[in-house]
Amino acid sequence: MSAILEIEGVTKRFGGFTAVNRLTLDVKPGERFGLIGPNGSGKTTLINCVSGSLPVDGGRIRFDGQEITNLPAHRRTRLGIVRSFQIPKPFTSMTVLENLEIPLEYAAHRRAREADADAAEILRAIGLESKAHLRPAGLTQIEMRKLELARAMAARPKLLISDEAMAGLSSAEVDDILAILFRLSEQGITIIMIEHIMRAVMRFSERIVVLDAGERIAEGTPDEIVRNPAVEKAYLGE
Amino acid sequence: MRRTAVVLLVGLAVIAGGILVATLRVNPYLYFAGYVILQYVVIATAWNILGGYAGYVNFGTPAFFALGAYTAVFLIQSMRAPLPVLILAGGLVSALLGLGIGYLTLRLRGVFFSIATLALSIVLQAMIINWEYVGGSRGLSVIRPSGPPFGNYVTFLFTVMVGLAVVAVIAAWLIERSWIGRGLAALRDNEEAAECMGVPTLRLKLFATTVSGFFLGVAGAPFPYYVTFVEPNSAFALDYAVNALAMPMIGGTTSWVGPVIGAVLLGAAQQLATVTISSEMNLFIVGVVLVAFVVLAPEGILGLIRRLRGR
Fold first, then answer.
1. Over chain A, what is the mean pLDDT?
2. Measured between CB atoms, which of A73, A105, A154 is closest to B196?
């Protein structure tokens, strides 16, 4: 099966610091893919390069067989690469429902009137329908994370990148978010999960890549990753 | 569709009302003062398309206003172009400047963008001061065309400004209601998230800076005929920068009606103060009112109304 996302020798530098170093990575269609690594290992930088928030300094990125290395972020979203943010970034002046209408209208090309119904449906699926007419400021942490995911779903992704959607949540809330992501996966959406909560990544991912200092140090199934001494070294030191 | 028709009708009614007022030939001072207030309706509305809808605070209003005015001066000097041409040309030249500062938003956000626009105003003023053909630092007298409608040129300009204000406000209303307005609101709230949700942020920002610049230039184009003596200090006056920002803030920046309310209230208060107290009181009033609003009602009069209704 050919890959949906092909990252080929991607490099990103900030001044003299190389955050991602000639990284090559494939994600297959429909895959549940985990990306882990210690703080500062380049996970979020890599995601920013894939989503188009940051330009790369070298290498190529292909999505669905199309070269996207130099496309602006909104074009990549329209192609189907959608991300959620580590720190939720809702549109604060809009209601929860209106938050979803932006991607529905701009990324999924729904007309304003259809968008209304679609947004309500997504909110129902994710369990936020009672908050539809609230401003994001009135939401709890978990609701904010759900809004972040709901808004990403509204963009009708083929590839969803979930950047630490569960950080700071309670164990029950983590299960809640995991269930949502599993459901999206069943719908055929490819998911890249970046997460520090090992219990969640290990349960969710079919394949995991471990980054350290901008390079891949391990790849494999969750079981293989747990037993990999290099991973342990990266996290705990020698 | 029906809404748009209603708005167009209301607009036409306002223009008709303006013409009616002009034929009444009341105290000429009222047209004189009315012109300034209407000019501020255009300025505040134009400023708000960028500052309110997109969230990019422009301190360089005088640059756009004066560019419109000096484009008119140039066209009067070189070919005695008729007023509609002056207005259109003034708007287009300022729109080009707007497009230029739109590209600044690629690198400059927040307060840095604002500082750059302020600098732009100063640079442009320095250039005009050194351009003798349009009067340089000494300024230039402009002779009004003879035989205006309504028997008086200021009265005629008053009706022109009514029309321009209606056009500007309708344009703002259309933008606010459209997919462009929703996209601008998204990028105002969070530019990175907007871009990642499929909003072409750069294109929308360029649109906002260009349209905003256009109407600021349009507001400035009749200025030479209004004052009949144009010089850099009055065309680049700080008042424009402060008022353009204060009026939408006082009225409410998220809706087209906010700048209109702010411009009418603050503009009228300033005109009143100029006659009854002194012309120096203008900016003082703006300053006090603005501080009061920022502290007590950060979402302006519209926000206050909404809050009262919510209770």
1. 89
2. A73
